[in-house]
């Protein structure tokens, strides 16, 4: 269970032209290596620093270590599912304002509602497109800036 972190800590934030701010840290939590790698590639190309985790337990440790600016999390994972991880992140005052976007192959109303109940900020259906993924990051960064 090795996860990778994109080595971009000093690259400028993609949200502001000419900004000297550190890169935005985006965490991707998914037990599928394909999904993690795809998201990491798409986000890294946009200049985001990407942190990955393969399950909920690893994710909670990484959230504390790396303090991501935004989190994408798969719903269906072994040990701790995405709902449980989201609820734990959102219940911690230190991370409560970090946007959490649920990722799922299910597109049902019940799944979306359950995500909202545990505090998720958005819900993306897999497979997601580059525009959906990057658009979600940009939208949440704009909300944080306003």
What does the model show?
The chain contains five helices and five strands. The chain has 146 residues and is α/β, with parallel strands linked by helices. Helices cover 40% and strands 16% of the residues. Strand 1, helix 1 and strand 2 form a beta-alpha-beta unit. It has one domain (25-145): 3-Layer(aba) Sandwich (Rossmann fold). The relative contact order is 0.16. The protein has helices at residues 33-45, 56-66, 82-91, 109-117, 130-145, and strands at residues 25-29, 49-53, 70-74, 100-104, 122-125. The termini are far apart. Helix 2 packs parallel to helix 3.
Give me a quick take on this structure:
This protein is α/β, with parallel strands linked by helices and 146 residues long. The chain has 5 helices and 5 strands, in the order βαβαβαβαβα. α3 (82-91) links the parallel β3 and β4.
Question: On the 0-100 scale, what is the average pLDDT?
Answer: 87
Main sheet, how many strands, which sense, barrel?
Answer: 5 strands, parallel
Radius of gyration: 14 Å
Query: What is the terminal-to-terminal distance?
Result: 38 Å
CATH topology: Rossmann fold
Order of helices and strands: EHEHEHEHEH
Provide the low-confidence segments as ranges: 1-13, 15-20
- Domain count: the total is 1
Highest-level CATH class: Alpha Beta
CATH architecture: 3-Layer(aba) Sandwich
Instruction: Assign a percent range to the helix content.
Output: 40-55%
Q: Globular, elongated, flat, extended or rod-shaped: what is the shape?
A: globular
Strand content: 15-25%
So how many helices? 5
Order of adjacent strands in the largest pleated sheet:
2-1-3-4-5
User: Number of DSSP strands?
Assistant: 5
């Amino acid at each position: 269970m090795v996860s990778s972190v994109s080595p971009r800590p000093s690259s400028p934030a993609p949200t502001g032209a000419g900004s000297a701010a550190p890169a935005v840290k985006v965490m991707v939590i998914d037990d599928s290596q394909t999904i993690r790698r795809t998201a990491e590639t798409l986000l890294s190309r946009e200049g985001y620093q990407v942190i990955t985790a393969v399950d909920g337990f690893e994710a909670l440790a990484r959230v504390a270590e790396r303090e991501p600016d935004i989190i994408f999390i798969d719903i269906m994972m072994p040990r701790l599912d995405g709902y449980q991880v989201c609820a734990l992140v959102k219940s911690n005052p230190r991370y409560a304002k970090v946007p959490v976007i649920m990722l799922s192959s299910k597109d049902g109303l019940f799944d979306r509602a359950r995500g909202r109940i545990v505090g998720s900020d958005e819900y993306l259906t897999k497979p997601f497109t580059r525009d959906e993924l990057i658009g979600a990051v940009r939208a949440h960064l704009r909300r944080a800036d306003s």
